[in-house]
Amino acid sequence: MDEKKRPSFVGKLQPMAPSRRTLTIELLVIDMKTCTRCVPTGARLAEAVRLLTPIAESLGIELVERMTLVGTPGEARRRALVSSPTIRINGRDIAQDIRESRCESCGEIAGGGAAIDCREWHYKGTVYSAAPLPMLLEAIMRAMLDIDAIPMVEPRPLAELPDNLVRFFRGGASPSCCG
After folding, report:
1. Distance from first CA to last CA of the chain, Å, rounded?
2. Which whole-number Å values give the CA distances from 10 to 5, 6, 13, 128, 134, in the listed order?
3. How many CA atoms within 13 Å lie on the side-chain side of 28?
4. Residue of 64, 59, 53 lying closest to 23 (CA atoms)
5. What does 124-139 look like in DSSP terms, one character per residue?
6. d(CA 170, CA 161)
């Protein structure tokens, strides 16, 4: 095609303004000062959101990071907290296979040497006491790519707390750690 006959699109295409969509990424914990699982999980989640924010913005997605400190059994039931720390994207737990193991720091916080188990994270054949950064990046990226299929939901309140959280709150712990 001769240069004079080639259509010119320069200046004729308008960039489409992407519709703004939101992913809410919530960390639910009972402590962000002492717990050796909650504190590093929170730090890694903040890092994952920081790293992915520019990509999300280019896709027209706003990442909203929220940390919720759960301090009472009633609040734990209302927020459907099954294990701590918990990370939800648009109300959905990122780790449906919840596994726990002994958390010494939470046992100390609960008092009396209470046997408290906290969430552990299983990722690519390895067990982590805090959520690993690559796992968080993958979960958030999957959610960004599938954002239209995961509208915001509100988890159903629990009728009863799991035994582990009952032991934690019964242990006389103040709002700290990750029962």
Report:
1. 71
2. 14, 12, 7, 52, 41
3. 27
4. 64
5. TTEEESS--HHHHHHH
6. 12
100-155 pLDDT, tens digit each: 878 777 767 677 667 778 889 999 999 999 999 999 999 999 999 999 999 999 99
Task: Kindly report the length of the chain.
Answer: 179
What is the distance between the alpha carbons of residues 44 and 40, in angstroms, rounded to a whole number? 6
> Pairing state of beta strands 61-69 and 21-29?
parallel
Q: How far apart are CA 34 and CA 7, in angstroms?
A: 65
Evaluate whether 153 touches 142 at the Cβ level (below 8 Å).
no
Rounded Cα distance between 94 and 135, Å, is 9
Amino acid code (one letter) for 144: M
The first and second tokens of residue 96, run together, are: 């449906």
